[in-house]
Amino acid sequence: MVSAPSRRDLVRYLIDRGLSERRALQFVGMSPISFRYRPVMDRNTALQAKIIALAHRHRRYGAGMIYLKLRQAGEVVNHKRVDRLYGS
Asked: Structure pTM?
């Protein structure tokens, strides 16, 4: 089983060599939706960095106190999101 990103690269290669997109997708066995998919950027990276920094600074704090510290710093964030990111 070949991953979707590598199949996308193969389809792009075939298109560059003169094959139509439709034929290249049919040859690789990939749907047009999968080929045109663009992954969404992770919007939690900045918040996760802040959570990690606070957790290192305040080692005894749990997710609830980290959430309160973020709110005191002016960060508008949901407590369930902090719980999820703190646990990962």
From this structure: 0.61
